[in-house]
Amino acid sequence: MSRADGISAAPATFRMARIARGFAAAFCAALPFLTLTSQPRPARGVIDGVVTDTNLVPLPGAIASVMGTEVKVVIGANGRFRISALPAGEYILAVRHVGYSPLLSLVTLTGGDTLRPSYSLERLVTLDPAVITAKPPVAVRLQEFEDRRRLGFGHFMSQDEIDAKGRSFTADLIRSFTSVVSVHSERLGQYAMSLRAGCAYQIFLDGMPQPVPTNLDDLPRPRDLGGIEIYSGPATIPPQYKSLNGLAKCGVILIWTR
Hints:
Elements: H1 3-38, E1 44-53, E2 63-66, E3 72-74, E4 80-87, E5 89-96, E6 103-109, E7 114-115, E8 118-121, H2 143-151, E9 155-158, H3 159-165, H4 170-175, E10 180-185, E11 189-194, E12 202-205, E13 208-209, E14 225-231, E15 252-257
Parallel strand pairs: 1-7, 1-8, 12-15
Antiparallel strand pairs: 1-4, 2-3, 2-5, 5-6, 9-14, 10-11, 12-13, 14-15
């Protein structure tokens, strides 16, 4: 080999070495990327469940969530829910619905598999508020009625007697008293007249005087009445119900509501 050949060969060898070093550097730079992209993606699974009450009725609107994650789904109208793309592993699944006891379940998810759990929530036992009412033997507004009935003056119909008759209209109850005759007028309607005195009764409803004559169809229904008392003459009318203007001279009918 000539000296000239030796001199010309050295640069070529140097260039080949530089090229080799460049390929090696590029390969090393690309190695992490190749390693990362070549790694298999972690296997994932699916939870396809159903939520009902203890009678197996679907519970739409319930919430299923994976504790420790932001995964949360709302149960559909058919009671079913689906959570997908979860990595394989163990999870705590929480199922909640307003008015029912919450439920926690440990599930083990295998990659590529689908779990199909069923959950039944138990309704919370709630006690209805206790309502205690103390009703006196005789309502205050009926105290006068009971006092006069014990004295025996007038004609009386108690609440039990009203209910026993089973009438739909108070006019029917009033007509059942022998001292009352019912009169019908196109202008005034149906009103009660004293058979003894031949004039209209003055009617008091819970102690309040009503127009004379009073249309009987305007009175409360029998189911709302607590008592009826009738006084057919001035002599027996209780003093507090004798009208100063003389309208009670034909008698009074006192009607009490329950």
